[in-house]
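Hi F.,

I've been meaning to write this up properly since the lab meeting, where we talked about keeping a consistent format for the predictions we share between groups. The idea is simple: the sequence comes first, exactly as it goes in, then the structure tokens exactly as they come out, then a line or two of notes. No screenshots and no reformatting. I'm using this chain as the first example so we have something concrete to point to.
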Amino acid sequence: MTSSCERDSKNINAFVSKLGAIVGEVLARVRFRRKVFAVASAVALVSAAAACSSPAAPPQTAPSAPENPTPSQVAATTASTPSPSTSPKASSSPVKKNANYKKFDRKDFVNPLGGQNRWYPLVPGTQTLRDGSINRGSRKLTHKLRVTVTDVTKVVNGVTTVAVLDQDIDAGQVGEASLDYLAQDKFGNVWYMGSYTEIYEGGQFVNAVDAWLTPKRGSRPGVWMMADPQEGMKYVEAHNSRETIRAEVAKVDDRKCVPFKCFKALQVLEDGHEFKYFGPGVGHIATEPNYSGGEQEKEVLVNVVKLTPKGLAEMSKEALRLDKHARKESKIFAKSDRAKRP
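Output, unedited:
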């Protein structure tokens, strides 16, 4: 009599044979990063078939993401970890409706974690690395910007936000670190609810240069990213006692190539002097000045990493430390809710 395991093995083997033909066609036309995903899927199925006749092997830990990985290392890392498109308790297909930044309603907000917004997905463990440059006199200074979506949450103005950690790295050391507190509504809009920034020299804290939380000192929520941006759309990204940041959608699905890859990107003009580009499924991929002369600050995406659980824990720990220090250094943050991990 044929066992259920043997029947399952035959069915899986037949399916793998068909899948092999499909993968063979796909691999001829796709880039390396996608090849890894296709091959990994086939290997997973073969492993499942072999499991019936072989002793169970101990689970393997995904490789740690290197500090400054190359694009080929990204492919290897992301292939062994869950896809950024998945997130707990998040609606996969919200009814998209662009926000009115003048109308903030707490009842509209949901779990901030997830990839509902294609132009700025808030999937914990997603980390991007951009190379930056700026002109100072006759010198061109370079630095790196590492942005991590943590799993740290904080209630701001009655809404649960997720902390996005932004680290500016100069000569291998963090010279500036900030937390952006972002919320997500049920329509897929990402809202900007607050921010805190610290400056360091030689690895030592110097001072806090920016701190605001809605609704303290007249600060109001802004829209970080619309659910469905349309060309010509204007809105306010942030409004606090120091500044009002205005944005205008310049182009949608405009081809933009950066060292990491080419995208059909969203182009946003910020405060009239700076273009920011966003790639679907990734987020911020480039910054370019909308002026001649001056500092000519530029940024380009060079890598995207899906952190291992250990890597995410380390980045989230740093976010918690920064939030705790904000409550000590800033009067605005002093009585705010503590940030926390799941």
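Notes:
Confidence is low (pLDDT under 50) at residues 2-6, 15-91.
The chain has two domains: 4-50, 71-334.

If this format works for you, I'll send the rest the same way.

G.
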